[in-house]
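Before relying on records like the one below, remember that each one covers exactly one chain. Contacts with other chains, cofactors or solvent are not represented anywhere in the record.
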Amino acid sequence: MPITLLLLCIASTSSWAGNTPCSGKKGGIDRCDGDLFLCNDGSISGSKKSCSAVYGGQSQARPQTVLQRNDGCACGTGSFCTGPRGGVYCLTPSGNKSYKRK
């Protein structure tokens, strides 16, 4: 019985770790940008959770600007660009696009 309980605890811990924002190659959570999780690799998380609700901070998300050009839409600035097919994204420090979940 104690061994079964121990195995159950280990299994539930590993499954919980896989469901955290910015897990895996993203390197963990760097900070919040309103309701979005900014990851250590510079991208935004696809999590549906609200970062400001999880970590406290401001109760209101700050207004987000959507730009038509690539200038000024770096992740973490609160500004996003619109792609040719309507996707909203920001640019990571490496220059890759990180799309915002709809």
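Residues 11-17 have pLDDT under 50 and may be disordered.
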